[in-house]
């Protein structure tokens, strides 16, 4: 049985543990297709030393999020992941987990691309999610033919 958590976006118990075929554990909401990362997991997936490359700077521009943490119910903080990336994340100040809405996971994949790690776990995780019906927002990744 999967453990279920309350999805921060849907406010329903639709967030559950999902183990990809590569052994990557994600918390995935079937309804809104958002993904929860526990502390340290983002760094692991994109091969970074930290979940957020410059956390202090990112937090200095954070705004209160209307979403609450699925694990501790604390109100999260919302901020831009890196100055370069078109990626806004919600992060729990208590457990330091992070919430990515649908489509934001692809932005994270783009960051991983720029780090020249095309075989990162996030890439494989995305593939597994797409097999389960995760619909990336195509326009974000569209390239000239
Ligand atoms: Zn949801
Ligand atoms: Zn939390």
What's the quick description here?
This protein has 145 residues and is of the alpha+beta class.
Report what the structure shows:
- The protein is α+β, with helices and mostly antiparallel strands.
- Helix content is 26%, strand content 23%.
- It has helices spanning 41-46, 55-60, 104-114, 121-131, 138-141; strands at residues 4-5, 15-19, 25-29, 35-37, 63-68, 75-80, 88-91, 98-100.
- Strands 1-2-3-4-8-7-6-5 form an eight-stranded antiparallel beta sheet, with no helix packed on it.
- It is globular, with a radius of gyration of 14 Å.
- The termini are far apart.
- The relative contact order is 0.17.
- Mean pLDDT is 81; it is low at 139-144.
- One zinc ion is lined by residues 69, 71-72, 74, 92, 94-95, 97.
List its salient traits.
145 residues; alpha+beta; 8-stranded antiparallel β-sheet; 23% strand; disordered C terminus
Strand order of the largest sheet: 1-2-3-4-8-7-6-5
Overall 3D form = globular
Report the strand count: 8
Distance between the termini: 44 Å
**Which cofactors or ions or other ligands sit in this model?**
zinc ion
Question: Could you say how many structural domains there are in total?
Answer: 1
- Which structural class should the secondary elements be placed in? alpha+beta
Number of helices: 5
Topology:
Elements (H helix, E strand, L loop, with lengths): L3 E2 L9 E5 L5 E5 L5 E3 L3 H6 L8 H6 L2 E6 L6 E6 L7 E4 L6 E3 L3 H11 L6 H11 L6 H4 L4
Antiparallel strand pairs: 1-2, 2-3, 3-4, 4-8, 5-6, 6-7, 7-8
The protein binds zinc ion (2 copies).
């Amino acid at each position: 049985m999967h453990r279920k958590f309350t999805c921060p976006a849907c406010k329903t118990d639709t967030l559950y543990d999902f183990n990809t075929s590569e052994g990557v554990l994600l918390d995935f909401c079937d309804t809104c297709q958002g993904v929860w990362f526990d502390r340290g997991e983002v760094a692991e997936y994109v091969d970074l030393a930290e979940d957020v490359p410059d956390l202090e700077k990112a937090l200095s521009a954070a705004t209160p999020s209307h979403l609450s943490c699925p694990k501790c119910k604390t109100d999260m903080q919302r901020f831009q992941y890196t100055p370069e990336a078109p990626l806004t994340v919600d992060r729990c100040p208590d457990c330091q987990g992070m919430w990515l809405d649908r489509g934001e996971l692809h932005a994270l994949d783009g960051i991983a691309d720029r780090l020249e790690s095309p075989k990162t776990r996030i890439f494989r995780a995305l593939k597994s999610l797409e097999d389960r019906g995760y619909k990336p927002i195509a326009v974000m990744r569209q390239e000239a033919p």
